[in-house]
Predict the structure.
Amino acid sequence: MNKYEPLGRKLDLRSGRVDLSHGSGGRAMARLIADVFHKAFDNEFLRAGNDQSVFGVAGGRMVMTTDGYVVSPLFFPGGDIGDLAVNGTINDIAMAGAKPLYMSASFIIEEGFPLADLARVAQSMGDASRAANVPIITGDTKVVERGKADGLFISTACVGVVPAGLYLSGDRARPGDVILLSGSIGDHGVAVMSKRENLSFEAQVLSDTAALHDLVAVMVEAAGASIRLMRDPTRGGLAATLNEIAHQSRVGVRIEEAAVPVRPRVAAACELLGLDPLFVANEGKLVAFVASEAAETLLAAMRAHPLGQDSARIGEVIEDEHCFVQMTTAFGGGRIVDWLSGEQLPRIC
Amino acid sequence: MKHVDEYRDGELARDLARRIALEARAGHTYRFMEFCGGHTHAISRYGVEDLLPGNIRMIHGPGCPVCVLPMGRIDDAITLAERPQVTLCTYGDLMRVPGSNGSSLLKSKAAGADIRMVYSTLDAIAIASNEPERQVVFLAIGFETTTPPTAMAIRLAQKKRLTNFSVFCNHVLTPSAIQKILQASDPGAVEIDGLIGPAHVSTIIGTTPYQRFATEFHKPVVVAGFEPLDVVQAILMLLRQVNEGRAEIENQYIRAVSADGNRKALAEIADIFELRDSFEWRGLGEIPDSALRLREPYAQFDAERRFAIVTKPARDNPACECGAILRGVKRPRDCKLFGAACTPETPMGACMVSSEGSCAAYWAYGRFRDRETGLQRVGAR
């Protein structure tokens, strides 16, 4: 005799597709949540089966952030929208020097989206959250009609706690501070672009998507309050991050082009596409501004961590009321590294 | 990155810079124009000017096809794209270029026009093949470099018997524009002592078309590649020509350019395109024999004929100094609009429109030089 299935027929995770019933609040949605999300994220909070999760807090200061993920294509060399949505949001917490604790995840799914892809993304999120030791403890699912979304959008939020005595903020850079970068730039952007349908090329570059909170913990341990601020150079790349900080802190920034690590394959792909690696997105790198006397200690600590092996000292903070980011080029001249105007598109001649 | 890094070597650059500093005569000012936006970009991006002595001035020419496309033609493209049956395919650089009254292809796209960014003319052909119900128009712009790919697309469309593909042709010719600049006689017009000739354009047309600038105008020309070392070497070659009283066509870019150019590409261009009597260049005005249109046998692929496009003149902001900047009469910072009303986010004139325009390059890479306190001249030691 068939076993009684309270949530109706099992999902066809091989060839089935998401339909509007999966977002309607009925049995099909309960089945989707149970078979896809709870299975992938499994933890005691989700097993309680509530619309929210309750957790205890210690004293001190907490930090919270939220981020939306709309990457195209959803799967790219080195990662997918799932681990990106976990790592990216954890990194925003980590940049406060904080320890991330819990996450939420919200899904907007287009009607017709393959269940196999959804399960793959959920699995990747589950793996990333377990690896980071930051459980996804609450979530939401919506299904919209075909054509009203591009496959799958994910929004995640995260809360964390800030160690006592640590006040990292983009307005704290001071002239004389040293700027450290945790590794090579441009990997994520080039990996994603290499899979765009109208731009296919075999770049053999993997996204650097990674959760940086463990590296950050090591850095805080090594240099503590000497760290002025940290930021992960995502959209707009290193150039945007340095300009943001220069403006927030009302200082100038000077970097050495030759000191900024760029993998040869990334450099070659950028050359081909007419892109500048300084403006290309990263998902597993951070920039730290630190008081000069602590710079060497901090750099050594970063290099001792697997995610910071290629860390480099790339420049320093200078006085400049115009808040320019200047660069000494490897060629021997000087230039500004400006914000990006519009999208960074290939040149045509 | 082999085959590229060699052309960006700082040691070699400093060595060339020392020779330039040695050979540049004190008390003499050298004014060299690099015609191409690609050279302007390399000069700005790598900080080449920091390696040059103060008496060598680089004048940034009009060689940026996005920049010199007149506003009226952008208006035409927008009108075309807004036709319900038309799919307009364009290179990404053109999306933000301002048309009249603050319009742009980007804004039209947001309002619902079917405008698609392509990376190659073949993408446009693929769209026309896959969507026979759409009238696919390729917005063709560029100098001689981008003309062969347009020719190839037309040839392919002919072979595939595509009836829904056409080209809105805005291809222009470099030698005609160089001649116009050398003939400039407006008050304050700058005497140019030599020209860095186009890189990629010359791979197609060769070096012979520049001969008249040496014989008729007595200007030295050095055709050079787009890498920073190419540019520095070309400057040294120009300097030597001037010092020795020579006016010759020299080829620094021998790894890619021959005297005759790419004959196959030239033959294909000549078969499909013919000269227009005159064409407007943004910032430079009307220039005779400076642009191409499709020949009669290819009329079915000509968007201008198919959609009966008649370009209406559109005026740039009267305060815009692009014309004077493109001729080397003024510098970007001499323009009242520069950095105030006119920035890369809200470009008013030709030179700010594309990253290869002289104002945009100056804004993006060089504006720190306007200050009293700034980066030291790092290279000129």
In short: The radius of gyration of chain B is 21 Å.
